[in-house]
């Protein structure tokens, strides 16, 4: 792992709660969370299209015909994440939302790795389970489910 890659991953992680807060603010000031999520995807789509075009890509429609149906699910998953985060961040707060999302990512990643979904199998071991448990403990300490809302 390169230090630059690690730093970039941390920076991107730092932007996710800001994205949720910005989208929630847009939703509150406009037509709701789903509209804000749609705008987020629209702006993101334009940005990615421009970036892709700047790389001077080759394009053949036949290539898209060979892509399996399930490969398009990433966009749907992204839409569910952005819309859910936009809806939940005002209720949970940015820190609690991200902690719960990260715990969900850890559980999902361990399952996908263990069963080798779309990549080589990487079995779960006690160390990985211990790491997941530590993330859960951290999430619980941030979320504090034993406290009354607003307290």
From TrEMBL:
Any Pfam family matching the protein: DMT_YdcZ
Listed name of the protein: DMT family transporter
Keywords: Membrane, Transmembrane, Transmembrane helix
Organism field: Pseudoxanthomonas helianthi
Keyword Methyltransferase: no
TM ranges: 34-55, 67-88, 94-112, 124-143
Gene Ontology CC: plasma membrane
UniProt feature coiled coil, ranges: none
